[in-house]
Amino acid sequence: MSPALAAAARRLAEAGVESPRVDAELLAAHVLGVGRGRLVLIDTVRGDELLRYEELVELRARRVPLQHVLGTAAFRHLELKVGDGVFVPRPETELLAGWGIEHTAAGATVVDLCSGSGAIALSVADEAEPALVIAVERSPEALVYLRDNARPFASVRVEPGDVTDPNLLSDLHGRVDVLLCNPPYVPEGTPVPPEVADHDRAMAVFGGADGLSVIRPVIKLAAALLRSGGVVGIEHDDVHGDDVPALLRADGRFTDVIGHIDLTDRPRFATARRV
Length: 275
Ligand SMILES: C[S@@+](CC[C@H](N)C(=O)[O-])C[C@H]1O[C@@H](n2cnc3c(N)ncnc32)[C@H](O)[C@@H]1O
Description:
The chain contains eleven helices and nine strands. The chain is an alpha/beta fold. The chain has a seven-stranded mixed sheet with strand order 5-4-3-6-7-9-8, with helices on both faces. Strands 1-2 form a two-stranded antiparallel ribbon. Strand 1 and strand 2 form a beta hairpin. The longest helix has 15 residues. The model has no long low-confidence stretch (mean pLDDT 96).
C-alpha cells in the first residue's frame, strides 16, 4: 500500500490540501473498505482498487472536500450523508452540540435552526432523550440530506423555513426548552479556502457584510420561542466573541450570557438563558 499512499500524499500536498497524509489514508481506507487503522496491514493496492483510489485522490487534489468525496462526514457519534449542496459539519460545532446535549433534559423540546445536514439536531436526538427536536432549514438541496439523515430518529421533525422570519414555528412560541443554531456567520468578503468557496453554498457560509445578518433575527426568534428558563446556544465567527454576547445582552430578554471558546482557544459560541 505504501507507494500508492506516499504518491497520493505527495499529490495532495502539492495541491495545497491541509492534511495530505490523513486525507490520503482516509481515501485509501474508503476504497479498500477497511478502518484507517488497518491500512498498516495492507502492503499494496492493485488493479481496479488502485484506479479508483487514484480517481478519488485526483478529486481531492482539485480541492473537492474530503467528505464530499467520501459521501459522509463524521460528527460526534454520527456518520452523516453529505455532498453537493449541503454544508459539511465542522469539528468545532461538536462543542455547541455537546453543550446542547448537556442542557437537554428528558422530554425536552429542542429546536435546531439552520440545520444543514442535521448535525446538531440529530446529535441531540442521538445522545439525549428529547421528546421533540425540530430541525429548520431553508435550502431545498440541504433539506434532501437533512430528511435522509433524520430518517432513523423518531423524535426529529424536519421543518422547511426561514429563520429570519419572526413568526417561524409560531405554535411553539414560549414552549421551547433548548434552541441551538449554527448559522451562516462569515463576514462577506472574508477569504475562504477552495473547498468552501467552490463547494459550500454562499448562503451556508456568509452572514452579510458584518457576518451577523442571520444571528440578529435568530436572537429575536430565540427570545420568542424559548420558555422562561429555556436556553439558547449560537455559534459565531471568531471575530464575534464580543458582538454576539453583546447582542444577547442588548435584547434584554436573556440572562447568564456566556462566551465559549473552541479547541483552538478561539471564541466560537455564545449561550444564554431566557429570563
Ligand atoms: C453554517 S451551516 C450549518 C449547518 C449545520 N447546522 C451544521 O452545523 O453543520 C448554515 C445552514 O443554514 C442554512 N441557512 C442559511 N440561511 C438560512 C435561513 N435564513 N433560514 C434557514 N436556514 C438557513 C444554510 O442552508 C446552511 O445549511
